[in-house]
Specification:
With 270 residues, this protein is α/β, with parallel strands linked by helices. It has eleven helices and twelve strands. The protein has helices at residues 12-22, 44-60, 71-84, 96-103, 128-133, 135-141, 157-162, 166-183, 201-208, 217-231, 250-261, and strands at 3-7, 28-32, 65-68, 91-93, 115-116, 121-126, 144-145, 148-153, 189-192, 213-216, 244-246, 268-269. The structure holds D-glutamic acid (DGL). D-glutamic acid is lined by residues 7-9, 11, 37-40, 70-72, 127, 130, 158, 194-196.
Length: 270
């Protein structure tokens, strides 16, 4: 039984790679909804229904545990899915909580009341749908008090990365960072709240300056998954090959994914 990793497209591969590195023996299957990416400019119902469809496809692969390696799906759909839709024998986990636990210096799964934390000003970079949902601020408020969040919707950045237009993507990062710094000149931390963005983490860091601590999700999600699986061994997959599935053209997506992660990846039609 593999663990499922879901994203609208290629971004979730940053999480997939980190999980593979942390737990090399864990079998993973990946679903990229490339035909419908980007999700970040879609409305909430649309994102919810597409995410449910992709997760169901991973359940068909035997993945009782699915990680939404997509902040947009996590922000807009995860809670609604967990409350109304996910059956008792399956789990769907988002990528926000591990990130916020790291930013607020908590142990994984610590649900104690909100408290003062060291960081006071956070810059959030995410898709327009994630920013509009305010889900990051909501989850943060469960864990920390007195933290200002300034959010920058990075329209166009996911498209540039899916198209492998790195020159355009880098220019967009500089412009989005500049726009945010005009509103919040001295953030202590910056959160890359989209799984596509770690590919450009170094560009974010240069544009933000050395004094800003940049949090990117992949390793945090992998570490928190490792801890989760220790606590829920029934969700632990068995050894064996998982599959990489896409709703897009498998050859095009394999080529793009191979460039994205700089290693050969072979996708099949979902
Ligand atoms: N990588 C995704 C995220 O973390 C989705 C981006 C998109 O499809 O717009 O938000």
């Amino acid at each position: 039984m593999p663990v499922g990793v879901f994203d609208s497209g290629l971004g979730g591969l940053t999480v997939y790679r980190a999980i593979q590195k942390h737990m090399p023996h864990l079998t993973l299957s990946y679903f990229g909804d490339n035909a419908n990416a980007p999700y970040g400019v879609r409305d909430a119902d649309d994102i919810y229904h597409l995410t449910c469809k992709g997760v169901e496809r991973l359940w068909d692969e035997g993945c009782d545990l699915v990680i939404l390696a997509c902040n947009t799906a996590t922000a807009v759909a995860c809670r609604r899915m967990q409350e109304n839709w996910v059956p008792a024998n399956k789990r769907v986990l988002g990528v926000f909580v591990p990130l916020i636990e790291a930013v607020t210096e908590r142990d994984w799964g610590d649900t104690s009341p909100p408290r003062e934390v060291e960081v006071k000003q956070i810059a959030l970079f995410a898709t327009p749908a994630t920013v509009a949902s305010r889900a990051f601020q909501r989850e943060l408020a469960f864990r920390a008090i007195g933290v200002d969040v300034e959010a920058q919707p990075c329209a166009g950045l996911v498209d540039a990365l899916e198209d492998n237009d790195l020159e355009l993507a880098e220019a967009m990062v500089r412009s989005h960072v500049g726009a945010l710094l005009r509103r919040m000149p001295n953030p202590q931390s910056a959160v890359l709240g989209c799984t596509h963005y770690p590919i450009l983490e170094h560009i974010f860091q240069i544009a933000l300056g050395d004094d800003v601590k940049v949090f990117s999700q992949a390793n945090l999600v992998a570490a928190s998954l490792e801890d989760y699986l220790k606590r829920h061994p029934d969700m632990l997959g068995t050894d064996g090959p998982g599959r990489l599935l896409t709703t897009g053209n498998p050859q095009d997506v394999s080529d793009a994914a191979t460039r994205f992660l700089a290693k050969p990846l072979h996708f099949e039609a979902a």
